[in-house]
Design goal:
Layout lengths: L6 H10 L1 E5 L13 H4 L4 H9 L8 H11 L3 E7 L27 H11 L3 E7 L20 H6 L5 H15 L8 E5 L18 H4 L1 H11 L4 E2 L22 E2 L2 E2 L3 E4 L17 H13 L3 E6 L9 H17 L17 E6 L2 E6 L6 E4 L19 E3 L6 H7 L7 E4 L8
Parallel strand pairs: 1-2, 1-9, 2-3, 3-4, 4-5, 8-9
Antiparallel strand pairs: 6-7, 10-11, 12-14, 13-14
Helix pairs in contact: 4-5, 4-11, 10-11
This protein binds 4-nitrophenyl 6-deoxy-alpha-L-galactopyranoside (JFZ).
The site of 4-nitrophenyl 6-deoxy-alpha-L-galactopyranoside has 8 residues, from loops.
Length: 423
């Protein structure tokens, strides 16, 4: 097993299918998107109040882990550091950490998170930002808050990204040494060779800046069972379509590849108080089913508040997803795509010889399934195990079915209740 992860890690990740993403940092205080420092061109000085007032007195990651578990999730990925540069653990190589805030002396929020996940039986992943808007040696480029500030750029001249890379490697080493077994490493992100719109060199950053191959080797050395994402500008173990559901199983160079879609609850990753763009639980369940039907996972994000809680809207959404997963878990956990082509507005998932049909809109009493005639022995609704009649083209039912056009082209017709079940 020289390059890749062990097969058991891959299998476990595929089985999980549904995970929690947590974006949490100082940006929870301004509460208007995790890119606020960049979007509003805030200087370090402008941003300082959030460090000074970081006081998540209600932080209790067991509540997060429990909410995730009840929603049907089986792993959780935490932002140990996002682009702002603030570290949720007491890093030995930085003063820009929770342990250096007035509130957080001696605290390690990552440690508590990891323990909570273990208690709830969740796999553990670390998101770690490659971009760092706070580190003094991180060269200013088009992704940097001060990207248009000539004075700031002049002052920052001579920054050495390799010094930053040393810091990145040192922090990665801490994270993968001090917290026991870590299942996923989620680096974010590379933007090689990207230029300004006006054609000026944007100083994109990629594998040479992060020393990605060396970093990946370090990760595997410290955590032989870990899976690494694909944002280091070199191929990783799984790919990460973002706020986008692909149109089928994903491939790399024509070969199927492990993948995980990540989605927000409301378009923002960090807590965004005034955002009203919430997805319905129904849409989110469809995203989960869609991912699994295409052999992928779904990593669904919550941005906790500055006090350290999931806000009521997030909790209500997770609870509502949980009502669905309680009754439909076996249609997605450990499930994968089916060999049949699903009709419009439906998805198939399959486990062994059981085929699950997910109806994204409720049909008018019957649903017609091309290619399934003669292949199904018995059908039932999953929520209550009530029988669903198969309308097959056999001699006893011929007159009846022919009049409805059933059994043409190998079509199997299912007779459904006229009303959609409640869950
Ligand atoms: C990144 C972050 O900037 C964002 O804040 C969040 O953490 C998200 C999960 O990841 O956003 C990206 C990264 C890469 C692309 C788009 C958004 N991309 O490659 O298109």
């Amino acid at each position: 097993m020289p390059d890749g992860p062990p097969a058991a890690s891959i299998e476990r990740f595929r089985d999980w299918r549904f995970g929690l993403f947590v974006h949490w940092g100082l940006y929870a205080l301004p509460a208007r998107h995790e890119w606020v420092k960049n979007r509003e061109r805030l200087t370090d000085e402008d941003y300082q109040p959030y460090f000074d007032h970081f006081e998540p007195d209600l932080y209790d990651p067991r509540k997060w882990a429990r909410a995730a578990r009840e929603a049907g999730m089986r792993y959780a990925v935490l932002t140990t550091k996002h682009h702002e540069g603030f570290c949720l653990w007491d890093s030995a190589v930085s003063d820009y950490t929770v342990a250096h805030t007035a509130w957080g002396a001696g605290k390690d929020l990552v440690q508590q998170f990891v323990e909570a996940c273990r208690e709830e039986g969740l796999g553990v992943g670390f998101y770690h930002s490659l971009i760092d808007w706070h580190h003094p040696e991180f060269p200013i480029d088009l992704m940097h808050p001060q990207r248009d500030d000539e004075e700031a750029i002049a002052k920052a001249a001579g920054r050495d990204v390799q010094v930053y890379a040393d810091y990145l490697h040192a922090q990665t080493r801490e994270l993968l040494t001090n917290y026991g077994q870590i299942d996923l490493m989620w680096f974010d992100f590379s933007y090689p060779g990207r230029n300004h719109e006006d054609g000026r060199d944007g100083h994109g950053k990629g594998r040479d800046d992060w020393r990605s191959a060396e970093l990946m080797a370090l990760v595997r050395e410290l955590q032989p069972g870990i899976l690494i994402n694909d944002r280091l500008d070199i191929p990783g173990d799984f790919v990460t379509p973002e706020q986008y559901q692909p149109d089928g199983p994903m491939t790399r160079n024509g070969v199927p590849v492990l993948w995980e879609a990540c989605q927000t609850l409301n378009g923002s990753w960090g807590y965004d108080r005034d955002n009203l763009d919430w997805k319905t639980p129904e849409t989110l369940v469809k995203m989960l089913v869609d991912s699994v039907s295409k052999d992928g996972n779904l990593l669904l994000n919550v941005g906790p508040t500055g006090r350290g809680e999931f806000d009521p809207r997030a909790l209500a959404t997770l609870a509502s997803i949980g009502e669905w997963t309680r009754l439909h878990e076996r249609s997605f956990r450990g499930a994968g795509p089916a060999e049949f082509k699903a009709p419009t507005d439906t998805r198939y998932t399959q486990v062994g010889n059981r085929l699950y049909l997910h109806l994204f809109s409720w049909p008018m009493g019957h649903v017609h399934l091309p290619g399934l005639a003669g292949k199904v022995k018995y059908a039932q609704l999953l929520n209550d195990a009530s029988e669903v009649k198969l309308l097959v083209h056999d001699s006893s039912a011929e007159a009846h079915n022919t009049s409805m056009g059933a059994a043409a082209d190998g079509v199997l017709t299912l007779k459904l209740p006229i009303q959609k079940p409640n869950t």
